[in-house]
From TrEMBL:
Pfam families: KxDL. GO terms for biological process: lysosome localization. Residues 16-100 form the KxDL domain. GO terms for cellular component: BORC complex. Residues 98-119 are annotated as: Disordered. Residues 108-119 have a biased composition (Basic and acidic residues). InterPro entries: KXD1-like, KxDL_dom. This is KxDL domain-containing protein. Belongs to the KXD1 family.
Length: 119
């Protein structure tokens, strides 16, 4: 019984071998190796690009955070300066009411947009 099963499996395998051409199999194997090589090359290029992008991001993020801190500091300084200017202006108006003739000229002194208000 076991011998009959072996003979049958040998016959089936021989029939499968005749269905597929050996040259076609070799051609497929060659194409698979070519594709594997291309994929490995692509993987290497992407790995190098990822390393490069990571280094660039590290450099830029440090610069960006430094510039963000600088801008926040500059904004705080400018807010303080304009606060002082407003208090000086109110003191001048209290002492010399005619120093600024009307409200229309007050807009000429501070024409910067108020960035805190939503538009």
């Amino acid at each position: 019984m076991e011998e009959a099963i072996r003979e049958a499996s040998k016959q089936v395998s021989e029939e499968f071998k005749t269905l597929v051409n050996a040259q076609d199999l070799n051609s497929l194997r060659h194409l698979q190796h070519l594709i594997l090589g291309r994929l490995q090359d692509s993987n290497a290029v992407l790995s190098h690009y990822n390393d490069f992008a990571e280094n660039c991001f590290a450099d830029v993020s440090l610069e960006f955070s430094r510039n963000t801190r600088l801008l926040k500091s500059m904004k705080a300084d400018l807010d303080y300066i304009f606060l002082k200017l407003r208090s000086i202006k109110s003191k001048i108006l209290a002492t010399y009411p005619d120093a600024f003739p009307d409200e229309s000229t007050s807009d000429a002194f501070d024409r910067r947009p108020d960035l805190e208000l939503p538009q």
